[in-house]
Automatic annotation (TrEMBL), chain B:
GO molecular function annotations of the record: transmembrane transporter activity
Any one cellular-component term (Gene Ontology): plasma membrane
Record flagged with keyword Ribonucleoprotein: no
Protein topology in the membrane: Multi-pass membrane protein
Subcellular location: Cell membrane
Matches recorded under Pfam families: FtsX (PF02687)
Native species: Pengzhenrongella frigida
Family: Belongs to the ABC-4 integral membrane protein family.
Transmembrane domains' residue ranges: 287-312, 339-360, 380-402, 433-453, 459-485, 522-540, 755-783, 804-829, 849-869
Protein name: FtsX-like permease family protein
Key words of the record: Cell membrane, Membrane, Transmembrane, Transmembrane helix
């Protein structure tokens, strides 16, 4: 396959709107123009296997993800959306090309540097929640901070503690977890678990939060709740969220939807609505006849 | 179902291998023990039958067979040759060398000759002797050389007529040494080891043997007259004529033989004798098998644990099977089949390993030429093959029973649920708790009772109660392990958790599956408890004995010498010279020495007298060298220290004036010197026996008594086993007697240390198996927690931290098991010592800190090592791959 990235060329794609934001009462967002993107890919490729069995999961992708925005990545199964997220998050190594987190090029970093990067600058929300069963909600939330450790110097230590405590309280209040902090994951509903996972992802104030099908294991009400929290964390708490999903309704919560097909960018929708996302997906389907992954998660 | 079982086994091969290893080691232990027992039995069988050479029949008689009896038997039709056998020894002298071999008469028929001629000829005349090759070498003689037989001959006093015997109980007479000159005519070898037990036998003609036997019999038997006829034989070996019917001849022999004679074929006789002898080796085999049983028990815990985890991991597959129609019985059977196959395969491997080990050991021992003829190859009997296979397989299947039941409890619906990591099962059954508490309490009470009983009465009864109590309480502890071990591990983890995140995670991980943590720790607990019990028991026994010895023998080492020292110029001096004292003082480990006079005194008080042992010693020097200086308290030139025993017998109180008359008895039993009586003031101390006074007081008696003893004190009484031989070596050229507490101590220490080493070595197998269990548990945990580890990696846990987490986890499980085992073992060891040694005196409990520390350290290091491979695997896995796992 020799498809190059031509996101706007497909005739049936939803009209590409200018990235203008006439919405809500937020202060005019200067970041979209002035601040550098939170994450970037340049000719990023990932190849699995060799010879006949070669699969290009990601094929020379160029894309920017704006800071302070909620971006959804959509695409059929095998379109490379998870691979793109893993590469941007430093979980996986690219075959070629570059990935940047802020100004840091993460392609080429060694495992130790990647670990520190994930710990300090990236947050994760998983489909399976992936909370540690032996820890309480509070312990789970604070885990990334504990992994990072506290400054050795006493005053800095106290300051860091106080700052993180304040941020912790804010998160807990925002996510409505105050009365669930002493519970273990087994004693929490799916929605509550995912909210704990979001708090855990945000506790270290990461540059980017990556969410991988965060609503895949939730009923629609809990799913909606989780998505609104993710949106609030962007709009009210100033975070950057990149979410992989197959659910058009979930994608509609985002500020922007990037469509992937066969390892390449196949569309880009700003100010998505469920309808515009569906239309984009339909267009994709008619483009290459692939079967879209609109079925249930698993 | 078999296809399914095999398919599942293939998938879990790695995990099963680790579990199987435990069984392999256990069954190898059993197989090797059985083979060793077989070799011991066989060796003694060979040794017994070897002395019968190629005899067809063996006659044994309780009352002994006389020469006349033998002649009668020899005349029985069908008997070709018949030789009497007796146990007779002779002292052979060649220059400074001596040997005391058994004596056998040259066989009248080559078939009855147990030894082979290497060179020269068999003796044919009186005064000729054939000597085993190695013995000839030691004596420095060859064929044709002279050799002296040193015979002690009893000569009755002429005054005493045996017929009228004034005192038949004590025949008067003297032993005189009558040397006989012999000539070596042949050198022998003993390929079958017929005389291996007694160190070899020389051959002489029957006349010599009979005469010597008669000489030995005379005098020792009251009223015997040195008649050859009175010297009897214990058995006779018989060779039959060709074609004679064994049954007929046996019957004929039995008819003519004196009452109490048994005629058996050579094989029957050997078997009968071996069954008498093997009691010892059977007990040994039984004891070692007991240790093998412990090893297998630990292996069973490891297996059970592994299967529990396997079932948990297969929940989905099992549920799916239930969905498509498998019933509970089939699932159960499948698990048991799997266990059976694993057990059989592992046991077969273990058997091969055990046989191989035994064979290697035999080859090594054979090459070392120990003098005992060993079979060149192990003999594989059906018991050696079947016992390990059956036991190993059974243990595995039994260990899998509980997991098999768990498999049947998987609901079909589980197949439809998302596969989560195995949940934290907090199933705490009340009956189990009650049983555990009950067993522990009752067992502990019995242990206490045993200690009380042991102080006062029957040691065997106390031991029985104690063993029962120990087993009950330990089973209680193990049954209850699931309740308290995780808590202890958790508490230990929390102590560590403040240090680092890895420690915090590790601590949390160890308590998430209490049952597994408990089982893993318990497996280690068994071995460590037993090792610690043995170490503590040995240490406390040693301390207690040391204490008893300190009281009994206040002197570490007492070196006495009777013969006067002769200087180079021929002048004589006191037996103990300053040079001798200096030699003793120079031995490393000796810190104090004092030279003194050991003598007899006649003690007189209020008309009563008593002869007693006495020491003339300088009080200051005595205080330094004695373990209990209080014994010499109050000693000066005007006093005599008396033991309480003497004071009681003579009715002496402290402050009484007693009269002492010294006397020295020479080596020939004749009084060599006496002194004038001297009056001294009695001082009573805890001196264990005799009287002590000062050289000054002795001088006043005017007796000229030589310095004849040295007392030495060791820096550390625990060094006795090295220092005492060193003193012996330093004084090897002087005829001295060495006695004292240190000598006894050295002997006890050697026995205790040897026993301890053997027991700990045997228990070590169980500990090794348990450590395999720790590694197994860790690697299973790693597999189970793949996704969790990936999550941790994703949110910023470094590889190092991940590995550290597993290392700490392994060390926590192993360390807690080892520490609890050490504590429990110490308690059991104390209880055991208090029970067994309590009657001997004051029990002094000791903790072998060094050994316990070593055990815990080994466990910690093993826990750390056990985490290495799983840790590497976990750290290598990319987070993405692990997150993709369902």
């Amino acid at each position: 396959m020799d498809r190059t990235v031509q996101p706007a060329e497909s005739p049936a794609a939803a009209p590409r709107q200018a990235v203008a934001r006439p919405k809500l009462s937020l202060p005019a967002d200067p970041r979209s123009a002035a601040t550098p993107p939170a994450a970037r890919a340049r000719a990023l490729s990932k190849v699995y296997g060799t010879g006949e069995a070669t699969v290009r999961a990601l094929d020379a992708v160029d894309i920017d993800f704006a800071a302070g925005a909620f971006t959804a990545i959509m695409g059929p199964s095998g379109s490379g959306k998870s691979t793109l997220m893993h590469l941007l998050a430093g979980l996986d190594t690219a075959s070629s090309g570059q990935a940047f987190l802020g100004a840091t090029e993460i392609t080429g970093l060694d495992d130790g540097a990647l670990t520190r990067l994930r710990r300090d600058r990236v947050g994760f929300v998983f489909q399976q929640f992936n909370l540690l069963p032996m820890f309480t909600a509070e312990q789970n939330i604070l885990l990334p901070l504990e992994l990072a450790g506290l400054p050795r110097e006493a005053r800095a230590r106290a300051a860091a503690k106080a700052a993180s405590r304040e941020w912790f309280d804010t998160l807990v209040a925002t996510l409505g977890l105050a009365d669930r902090l002493t519970h273990r994951p087994a004693e929490l509903s799916g929605g509550q678990q995912q909210r704990v996972a979001i708090a855990r992802a945000l506790i270290a104030k990461p540059d980017v939060v990556f969410a991988d099908e965060p609503t895949g294991n939730l009923d629609s009400r809990s799913g909606a709740e989780v998505l609104s929290f993710l949106r609030r964390s962007v709009r009210e708490l100033g975070r950057t969220v990149i979410m992989v999903t197959h659910d058009p309704a979930a994608a509609a919560y985002a500020d922007r939807v990037v469509l992937l097909a066969d390892g390449a960018i196949a569309g880009d929708i700003s100010e998505p609505t469920p309808e515009s996302v569906l239309a984009g997906l339909d267009a994709l389907r008619s483009l290459d006849g692939s079967v879209l992954d609109t079925a249930a998660a698993r | 179902m078999w296809r399914l079982t095999l398919a599942q086994m293939r998938r879990s091969l790695g995990r099963l291998t680790a579990a199987g290893l435990a069984i392999v080691i256990g069954t190898a232990f059993v197989a090797a023990t059985l083979i060793a027992g077989g070799v011991i039995t066989r060796t003694s069988y060979d040794a017994v039958s070897a002395s019968y050479a190629d005899a067809d029949l063996v006659a044994t008689s309780e009352g002994g067979l006389t020469a006349a009896d033998l002649a009668t038997l020899r005349d029985t039709p069908g008997v070709e040759a018949l030789d009497g056998r007796r146990s007779l020894r002779v002292e052979l002298v060649s220059g400074p060398q001596r040997a005391v071999p058994e004596v056998a008469a040259v066989a009248s028929d080559p078939r009855l000759e147990a030894q082979e001629l290497v060179s020269g000829a068999f003796p044919t005349a009186v005064g000729e002797v054939a000597v085993p090759g190695p013995m000839a070498e030691r004596l420095g003689v060859g064929v044709g050389d002279p050799l002296t037989a040193s015979r002690q001959v009893w000569t009755p006093d002429a005054a005493q007529d045996p017929a009228t015997g004034t005192d038949p109980e004590e025949p008067a007479g003297t032993w005189t040494n009558v040397p006989e000159e012999l000539t070596v005519v042949g050198l022998l070898s003993d390929p079958a080891g017929a005389f291996a037990e007694s160190g070899g036998a020389v051959l002489v003609v029957a006349d010599d043997a009979d005469r010597w036997a008669a000489q030995d019999a005379t005098g020792s038997v009251v009223g015997s007259s040195g008649d050859v006829a009175t010297a009897t034989f214990t058995r006779a070996v018989i060779a039959l004529t060709d074609g004679a019917d064994v049954g007929q001849v046996t019957a004929a022999l039995e008819a003519t033989a004196p009452e109490g004679t048994t005629i058996r074929t050579k094989d029957d006789e050997a078997a009968a004798k071996v069954s008498e002898l093997t009691n010892g080796s059977d007990i040994l085999t039984t004891i070692v098998l007991g240790f093998a049983a412990i090893a297998l028990l630990v292996a069973a815990l490891v297996i059970s644990n592994t299967f529990q985890v396997l079932i948990a991991q297969r929940t989905r597959a099992l549920a799916l099977l239930r969905c498509v129609g498998a019933d509970k019985r089939q699932l159960r059977r499948s698990v048991l089949q799997e266990a059976g196959l694993l057990g059989l395969a592992s046991s077969a491997l273990g058997l091969a390993l055990g046989v191989g080990l035994a064979q290697v050991t035999l080859s090594v021992l054979g090459r070392m030429n120990s003098g005992v003829p060993l079979p060149p190859t192990v003999s594989i009997t059906s018991a050696v093959v079947l016992a390990p296979l059956v036991v190993g397989t059974l243990v595995t299947v039994m260990a899998a029973l509980a997991p098999a039941r768990a498999a049947t409890k998987v609901a079909p619906l589980a197949a439809l649920r998302p596969a989560d990591a195995p949940t934290l099962a907090h199933r705490r059954s009340l009956p189990r708790l009650v049983l555990a508490v009950l067993l522990t309490v009752v067992g502990a009470a019995l242990l206490g009772l045993a200690v009380v009983v042991g102080q006062s009465s029957d040691a065997f009864l106390a031991l029985g109660i104690g063993v029962l109590g120990g087993i009950l309480s330990f089973v209680g502890v193990l049954v209850g392990a699931v309740f308290w071990v995780p808590r202890v591990v958790g508490a230990a983890g929390r102590l560590l958790a403040t240090r680092s995140m890895a420690a915090k995670l590790a601590a949390a991980n160890t308590v998430r599956n209490p049952r597994r943590t408990a089982a893993t720790s318990a497996a280690l607990l068994i071995g460590v408890t037993l090792v610690a019990m043995m170490s503590t028991g040995a240490a406390s026994t040693r301390t207690t004995l040391d204490g008893a010895l300190d009281d009994q023998f206040p002197v570490d080492v007492a070196i006495s010498r009777d013969a006067p020292a002769v200087a180079a110029d021929g002048t004589t001096s006191d037996p103990v010279t300053p040079a001798l004292v200096a030699t003793v003082a120079d031995v490393p480990g000796v810190i104090e020495t004092v030279a003194l006079r050991d003598l007899f005194v006649q003690l007189e008080f209020g008309g009563a007298t008593e002869w007693t042992d006495a020491f003339a010693i300088d009080p200051a020097a005595a205080g330094a060298v004695l373990r209990a200086p209080s014994m010499m308290a109050g000693l000066d030139d005007s006093t005599a220290v008396l033991s309480s025993g003497i004071a009681e017998r003579l009715g002496i109180s402290a402050g009484d004036r007693v009269t002492l008359t010294p006397e020295l008895v020479g080596p020939d039993g004749v009084t060599a010197a006496t002194g004038e009586p001297v009056e001294l003031t009695a001082v009573l101390t805890d001196l264990p026996g005799g009287v002590a006074f000062t050289p000054g007081a002795l001088a006043r008696t005017g007796a000229d008594l030589p310095t004849n003893q040295v007392w030495a004190r060791l820096a550390d009484s625990n060094d006795a086993s090295t220092v005492v031989p060193a003193i012996e070596d330093a004084l090897s050229e002087t005829a001295v007697q060495i006695a004292g507490a240190a000598v006894e101590r050295a002997m006890f220490q050697r026995i205790i240390d040897t026993l301890l080493a053997v027991v700990v070595g045997l228990l070590g197998v169980a500990v090794v198996i348990a450590l395999i269990g720790v590694a197994n548990t860790l690697s299973l945990s790693v597999l189970e927690r793949r996704r969790e580890s990936a999550t941790l990696r994703a949110i910023g846990l470094s590889r190092r931290q991940l590995r550290a987490m597993l290392a700490i986890e392994g060390m926590l499980i192993a360390g807690v098991g080892a520490v609890i085992g050490a504590v429990l073992g110490t308690l059991y060891g104390w209880a055991g010592v208090a029970t067994l040694v309590g009657s001997m005196g004051e029990v002094r409990l000791d903790v072998p800190w060094g050994q316990l520390g070593l055990v815990v350290l080994v466990a910690l290091v093993a826990g750390l090592l056990a985490s290495v491979i799983p840790g590497r695997a976990a750290a290598r896995t990319s987070p993405v791959a692990a997150l993709a796992v369902d």
